[in-house]
Amino acid sequence: MPRTAPLIVLLLSVAVVGAALLAQYWGGLVPCELCLYQRWPYYAVIALMALTLAIGRRGISRVALALAALIFIAGAGLAFYHLGVEQHWFAGPTACTGGGLAGGSIDEIRRRLLATPVVRCDVAQWSVMGVDPLVSGNLVVSLVLFVVSWRLATRMGTT
């Protein structure tokens, strides 16, 4: 179990990142800034689980799985924030929500236009019934991986 549990979480995290990369490079969906931020928890967990597997000790595995659970709940929070930005429940970062062009000289407006990213965080590139399935799916997957990691960590303490 000290190696199996981290391996499960590692493989699930790699699958999520792989799906995101497939959607980007094969499916042509260009990620916005918040989409890219949502990958960071998975990268952190992949590194953490790889290190845990290399060490291979039960106590380390339990702590690493609990830490992974906390990382996934933070990732779920980030996904919820992004969903809220897309639904206009929350104000998004001005760097990717088209904060407006009012005010300033022509040169300042041109500079802001050139600095504005092409992909906006507050507009879903793809939606089903008004909801971005990638962002809402990441919210669900992050919550599921939180539960899986937490249960694996607590199960290690009892067996």
Secondary structure layout:
Elements: H1 4-25, H2 33-55, H3 58-86, H4 106-115, H5 133-158
Short description:
The protein has 159 residues and is mostly helical. 69% of the residues lie in helices and 0% in strands. The protein has one domain.
Q: What does this molecule look like?
A:
With 159 residues, the chain is mainly α. The chain has one domain (4-93, 121-158). The protein is built from 5 helices and no strands. It has helices at residues 4-25, 33-55, 58-86, 106-115, 133-158. Helix 1 runs antiparallel to helix 5 (133-158). The radius of gyration is 19 Å and the shape is elongated. The N and C termini lie close together (9 Å). The model has no long low-confidence stretch (mean pLDDT 86).
